[in-house]
Each structure stands twice: as structure tokens, then as C-alpha cells.
């Protein structure tokens, strides 16, 4: 119920004027609300548009855009074998073959964002001397054994009392194998030493460890990589810089070195 500001008379709200003094009814107070609406900031907002609606994790894009298929097929068949002279069927023949297949397909975007495979670890056998050294040394050892035993009368005093039968042959083969194997190992070790196998392997392992460390740093950046579909760029929450998708992998390696 309004109250007249002039005479103080209280009257019904249906009146537009005070029935006591005729003063107009005072206006109702107005409430003005000033509301400011602002978006919530996210770590994965695109540095170019400041919006996260078109942003997607790179690992999810690569996983969803990569399809691998493994399969195998087996074929079997039967036939008959006939005698050449009489043409009579003498047996049945059976054949079976299995073919394994592997197929990998990726979308164009997934290919651009896929991190390469890690560096391959070297093996010492890659730097060892060729096997011909072992064969040559082994043959030399067997030849030396034959020459020694050949000059022992008859087949050497070693065979006296045991004869030249099975036991004698067995001892001869055993001695030849031991000496041949020993010389083969010694020849291979000498060849490896001459070719610097240990030094080459240690150098290769040093290069591998450095490459693996660089790859792991780049992988940690790639795991945090986001892609903006609106601007075709990638970025990470820590390094809020937009890079075109063609340079995404290069950027991961560059950012990894600075962390």
C-alpha cells in the first residue's frame, strides 16, 4: 500500500493519485541488475581463438584414426597319386597352406600427428667379425688334430690298447671337435679385436642412449599435445604456442629439449 509523500496518507494501490491531497502516486523503485557473463578458462584453450570447443587431444586423434587388421587364411586340397607304369591309383595326397596378413590404415590427420617409432637398440652381433673366421679357424683346428694323430703309430700310441674301432673313432672326433672349437673361438675373438668390435658397439650404444633420451622427451610433449580443428594447429598447455600441424612432430622434439 503506497504512502503519499505530501500528506502521509496511506491509500490503496489502485489509485494513481492520493485521494487526500491529489499528489501522484510515487513510482515503484526499479532494480537494475548488471550481469557480466564470462567463459571459464581451460588449460587446453586454443592460443589463437581462446576456445576449447574445437580442441581435441592428439593421442585420441591418432588412436581413433589408426586401424590395424591382422588375419590369416588357410587353404587345403586333396589329390591322388598314380603309378607311372600301370596308371593305378596308389595313394591320396593332401596339401595345406596358411597365409598371414597385416594391414594398417590411417587418416591423413592421424598420419601427420603420429610420433615416429623409438630408435632401435643395437646388438653386439651387428659389429662382430664375419662367421668365415670361425669356420676357417675350426677347419684349421680339425686339420691340425688329424695331422697330429696321423703321425702317431699306428693311429698313435693313443689308440694302443683301445684299438681303432668305435671307441677310437669317438676319441678322435672328440679331440678334433675340442681343438677345432677352441681355435674357432680364438680366431673369432682375434678377428673381433682386430676389427674393433667392442669400440664400435660402445659407440653405437652411446648414440642410441642419446637418441632414446631425446625421443622420450619428445614423447612426453606429444602426450600433452592438443589439436585445434578450427585453425589446424597444435599446442600444449605448458607451452601455449600454436604450431601448424605439419610441424607438430618437429615441435615436440624442439620443446622436449627446452624442458
Describe the structure.
The chain is α+β, with helices and mostly antiparallel strands. 39% of the residues lie in helices and 18% in strands. It contains six helices and six strands, in the order βαββααααβββα. Strands 1-4-5-6 form a four-stranded antiparallel β-sheet. A hairpin with a 4-residue loop joins strand 4 (226-228) and strand 5. Helix 3 packs antiparallel against helix 4 (166-195) and helix 5 crosses helix 6 (248-258). It is elongated and about 145 Å long. The protein starts with 54 loop residues before the first strand and ends with a helix. Residues 153-163 have low confidence and may be disordered.
Question: Which key features would you list for this structure?
Answer:
about 40% helix, four-stranded antiparallel β-sheet, about 260 residues, two-stranded antiparallel ribbon
Write a brief caption for the model:
By secondary structure, this protein is α+β, with helices and mostly antiparallel strands. It has helices at residues 58-64, 108-113, 132-150, 166-195, 197-223, 248-258, and strands at 55-57, 66-82, 89-106, 226-228, 233-235, 243-244.
Subunit organisation of the chains: single chain
First-residue to last-residue Cα separation: 72 Å
The major β-sheet equals: 4 strands, antiparallel
Question: What is the alpha-carbon Rg in Å?
Answer: 45 Å
Count of strand segments: 6
The proportion of residues in beta strands is 15-25%
Report the mean per-residue pLDDT as an integer. Answer: 76
What is the percent of helical residues? 25-40%
Please give the order of strands in the largest beta sheet: 1-4-5-6
Low-confidence stretches: 153-163
Shape: elongated
Order of helices and strands: EHEEHHHHEEEH
Provide a count of the helices: 6
Structural class: alpha+beta
